Structure formats: structure tokens, C-alpha cells
Amino acid sequence: MPRLPESALLIISVQDPDLIMGSGRYRLLAAVLLVVSVERARPGQGSCRDCPAGTFCGKTKTPTCIPCPSDSFSRSPGQEACNLCRRCEGVFRTKKGCSPTSDAECKCVPGFHCRGAGCAMCEQDCGQGQEVTDHGCKDCDPGTFNDQKRGTCRPWTEYV
After folding, report:
1. What pTM, to 2 d.p., does this model score?
2. 99-117 pLDDT, tens per residue?
3. Domain 107-155 falls in which CATH fold?
4. Residues 6+ apart with CB under 8 A from 95
5. Residue-wise pLDDT tens digits, 1-40
6. Taking the domains of the chain in order of start, what are their residue ranges?
7. For the chain, what percent of residues have pLDDT higher than 90?
8. CA distance 21 to 27
9. Rounded CA gap, 98 and 81, in Å?
10. Which residues contact 42 (CB under 8 A, 6 or more apart)?
11. Fewest Cβ atoms closer than 10 Å to its Cβ: which of 43, 125, 139, 145?
């Protein structure tokens, strides 16, 4: 496949000596200028699409694939920047460390459990006889029970 220049200048010239206009003969010279900008594929150099996961495309005249710095990653090819890695701090602990091609995964410290996509937050575990509310753990109301760490209080049922 031929390589295209960064911009192209196309000149079209038409001459018709037999064109008659009015009482005399005229020569028609038509010139059309067309400037086209195209993404250039330079010999020996690729494009940003060629940068693999774990790298980003440097902003220079020539596309350059640069490895993601530490504590950052890029999941897919052709990214123009790397993403910062998630930090597992506070009630979060690292389940899987960050790599050049994937983000870190977090888990909760003992006594807490993950809630939300990708363990977006940690919610306190409640003991038996309690349930989780927006304000923490609450004892079950009379006539209800919960025998799970993460469950909700349910009414007692009678067995005969």
C-alpha cells in the first residue's frame, strides 16, 4: 500500500482551445487546488494504534510508545495516557497489585465486607441479632432476628 504524504496538493488543469464564447475564441484554463490532510504513516514508524496495553502514545511529531510509569496502567492498545492505579488504603487492603496493564483490586479488612462494583466501599459486618443501616449496625427489633453477618432482621416464625 502506498504511503500518503501529510498534506497533498492536487492541481487539475483543463485547456480547451475550441471553446467559443460570444464573438471570440477563448482558452479556458481551470485550476483546482485541493489540500488534503491525512494521518501520515511514515516509513519505519507506526501510529498510536500500534502502542500495546501497558504503554501510551507520546505527544510528539512521531508517534512513540512510552511504558506507563509506576503506579499507572493502560488496559487497551492505543491509549494516549495511562490511568492512575487505585490505592487500597484505610479499610481497604490490596487483593491484587497494579500492573502496567491492569488496575489494583482491593478487599476489605476483617470485620468489613465489600459493597458496590469492584469493592467500591467497605461496609461494617454486623453481629448476629443486628442489621446494617445507613448509620452502622442496629440491634434487631423485638420479634425479629438475623443470624448472618450481612443479613437483615426478619420476623420470627412459629413452628408447631
Report:
1. 0.56
2. 999 999 999 999 998 989 9
3. Tumor Necrosis Factor Receptor, subunit A; domain 2 (2.10.50)
4. 88, 104, 105, 106, 107, 119
5. 344 343 333 333 444 444 444 444 444 333 332 222 223 3
6. 7-37, 107-155
7. 43
8. 10
9. 16
10. 3, 62
11. 43
